[in-house]
Amino acid sequence: MTKIKICGLMTLDDIRAVNTAKPDLAGFIFAGGRHHLELDQALKMRQALDPAIPSVGVFVNAPINEMLKTYRSGAISMIQLHGSEEEGTVTTLQKNNIPIINVFKPNQLNPDTKADYIMLDSGTGNGKPVDWTKLQITTDKPLIIAGALDINNIKQAIKTTKPTIVDLSRGVETEGIKDPQKIIDIVKLVHSI
């Protein structure tokens, strides 16, 4: 069964929707932009989140101390590196027993990363779709795919790439706000594939 991560959660309403839908992972963004959270917000949301759903902190070229502080606070249980972080950052964080997702653009995949998971994304969370049919993906690590996924293209993306996890944020929003029904529908669909 393919797993699913709902990312870019911003409110307690988002958490309620996720608790109802039961995705496999929930994502909090600490990297600026529209979905950015401060640590105190993330802590409140983590407390309201179903304890069975691990939370992932998304960072872009953040200082290691900031990532460690966020992890140690209990707000997150995994870290997603979405910038141009060096492998040394991956191994330093792993020494603290933190599972790491390393994100690459399709043409810059590093299958030799020490990260626990590899994510392929079209860019910087800009909603740009990826043509999954043109990718040659070779990795022995669990693969996560992201990039303008939604209810209309998720089946094809999963069939083409056979990922371990799919990651959605904007694809479950309506007018920039997480849509509970879209979250429920896509989690059910992905878990059925």
TrEMBL record:
Q: In which pathway does it act?
A: Amino-acid biosynthesis; L-tryptophan biosynthesis; L-tryptophan from chorismate: step 3/5
Species assigned in the record: Companilactobacillus ginsenosidimutans
User: What EC number(s) would the UniProt record show?
Assistant: 5.3.1.24
From what superkingdom does this record's organism come?
Bacteria
Instruction: Read off the HAMAP family from this record.
Output: PRAI
Q: What class of enzyme is it?
A: isomerase
According to the entry, every stretch annotated as the N-(5'phosphoribosyl) anthranilate isomerase (PRAI) domain falls at: 4-188
What does the sequence similarity comment in the record state about its family?
A: Belongs to the TrpF family.
Q: Which UniProt keywords apply?
A: Amino-acid biosynthesis, Aromatic amino acid biosynthesis, Isomerase, Tryptophan biosynthesis
- Asked if the record carries the keyword Amino-acid biosynthesis, the reply is yes
Q: What is this protein called?
A: N-(5'-phosphoribosyl)anthranilate isomerase
Gene Ontology BP term (one): L-tryptophan biosynthetic process
Molecular function GO labels: phosphoribosylanthranilate isomerase activity
Reactions catalysed: N-(5-phospho-beta-D-ribosyl)anthranilate = 1-(2-carboxyphenylamino)-1-deoxy-D-ribulose 5-phosphate
